[in-house]
C-alpha cells in the first residue's frame, strides 16, 4: 500500500516531466530505486517512534486517568459477575478486587486483569497513533524527500532535458496561455466600452 502511494506521489509530482519521473522510478546508478531508499529511512523513523511510544506508555500508564477508569469499570464488572454466580461474600470480593486499587507500578502485583485493561488501552491508543505516523512519515515526509532528492539528482545532468515537458502537457500549457491572453484583451475592450 505504501509503495503504491509512493508511486502515485511520484507520478503526481513529476507528471509534466517524464525524464524526472523515470529517474525517480528507475534503478539508475544505485541498486535500489529512490522510492525504496526513502521508504527504508522513513520505516526506521516510524519504528523508532512506535518503540518510544510503547516505552512511554509503560512509564505513565499507572497514573493515567483512562487506565484508572478502566480498572474501576473492570472491578465493577467483576463484582457483578461474582454476585450473579451467587458466590456473594463481601469480604472475599473486597480481598479479590483490592488488587484493582493499586496504582503504583509493581510488576509482582500486576494481575492478569490489570494487564488486560492496560493492553486494551494501549491497543486502542496504538490503533489511533500508528496510522498518523504512517501518514506523516511514510507519505507526507517521504513525498517531500522524494522531490528534494530528485531535484538534487539534476546536478551535473542536462537540466534542459530533465525539465522538458511532455509534448501534450506543453501544448496544453501553451493553449491555456493563449486563452488567458485572449481573455485579457476581451476584458480590456469591455472596460473601454
From TrEMBL:
One of its GO terms (molecular function) is GTP binding. It comes from the Eukaryota. This is GED domain-containing protein. Residues 108-193 form the GED domain.
Amino acid at each position: 500500500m505504501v509503495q503504491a502511494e509512493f508511486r502515485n506521489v511520484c507520478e503526481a509530482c513529476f507528471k509534466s516531466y517524464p525524464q524526472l519521473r523515470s529517474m525517480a522510478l528507475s534503478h539508475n546508478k544505485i541498486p535500489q530505486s529512490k522510492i525504496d531508499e526513502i521508504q527504508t529511512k522513513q520505516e526506521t523513523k516510524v519504528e523508532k517512534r512506535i518503540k518510544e511510544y510503547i516505552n512511554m506508555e509503560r512509564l505513565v500508564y499507572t497514573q493515567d486517568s483512562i487506565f484508572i477508569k478502566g480498572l474501576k469499570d473492570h472491578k465493577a464488572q467483576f463484582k457483578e459477575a461474582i454476585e450473579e454466580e451467587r458466590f456473594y461474600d463481601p469480604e472475599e470480593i473486597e480481598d479479590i478486587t483490592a488488587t484493582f486499587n493499586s496504582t503504583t507500578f509493581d510488576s509482582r502485583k500486576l494481575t492478569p486483569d490489570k494487564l488486560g485493561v492496560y493492553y486494551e488501552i494501549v491497543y486502542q491508543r496504538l490503533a489511533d497513533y500508528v496510522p498518523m505516523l504512517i501518514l506523516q512519515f511514510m507519505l507526507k515526509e517521504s513525498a517531500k524527500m522524494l522531490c528534494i532528492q530528485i531535484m538534487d539528482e539534476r546536478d551535473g545532468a542536462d537540466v534542459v532535458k530533465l525539465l522538458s515537458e511532455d509534448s501534450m502537457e506543453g501544448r496544453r500549457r501553451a493553449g491555456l496561455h493563449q486563452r488567458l491572453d485572449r481573455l485579457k484583451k476581451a476584458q480590456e475592450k469591455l472596460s473601454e466600452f
